[in-house]
# Entry
Amino acid sequence: MPLYPSSEKLTKGLNQKFFQGIFRHYFKTYIRANEENLPEYLLKSLKLMKRSEAYLNIHFLKNIHAFEQAERRLKFEEAFFLSTGLRPLKTTSKTSVQGIPSPSSEIFQ
# Structure
């Protein structure tokens, strides 16, 4: 089980079991936050675990292999949405945004 750091002043009397219970409750109560956001074909072709399974394996790991697969899934998700989110910005900047004209090349001679 992962260990969650705490300040003794703030968490006196609370232990790791308490924090693990909070996370378990969160995952059961707010499972909608863990709904899958990648298409099934992508999960299969890249052999990625489901999002909810990844979050559970990060916080309540079964073994190191499951943890590594969960980490791989979450890193891929972040990179995927970052790259697809930036693509429209890149296209827009190339097609519709005028840059500032540079000074005459005479200055640099």
